[in-house]
Design brief:
mainly alpha, disordered C terminus
Length: 77
């Protein structure tokens, strides 16, 4: 996941741990097997929310899973 971070960004150890925990949880929940494009999308979702100041790994994984599976679409869409 960290290879997707631009060179001008850095994260402390606690933030990296939150990202990794959220990523691992979603990979398990979604039962992703080798789907590199999907894994990259997941990493980008998590990075976007980290940049929006979300640091809780449980909330990060919930948000990322909903976005990844598109279950967070509004009913008006």
């Amino acid at each position: 996941m960290l290879h997707l971070v631009s060179n001008n960004r850095s994260y402390d150890a606690e933030t990296v741990a939150a990202m990794a925990a959220a990523y691992d949880r979603v990979v398990q929940l979604a039962r992703m097997n080798g789907a590199n494009a999907v894994r990259e999308t997941l990493a980008r979702i998590i990075l976007r929310h980290i940049d929006l100041c979300e640091r809780d790994p449980d909330r990060l994984s919930d948000i990322a899973f909903r976005e990844l599976t598109r279950s967070d679409r509004s009913a008006t869409g």
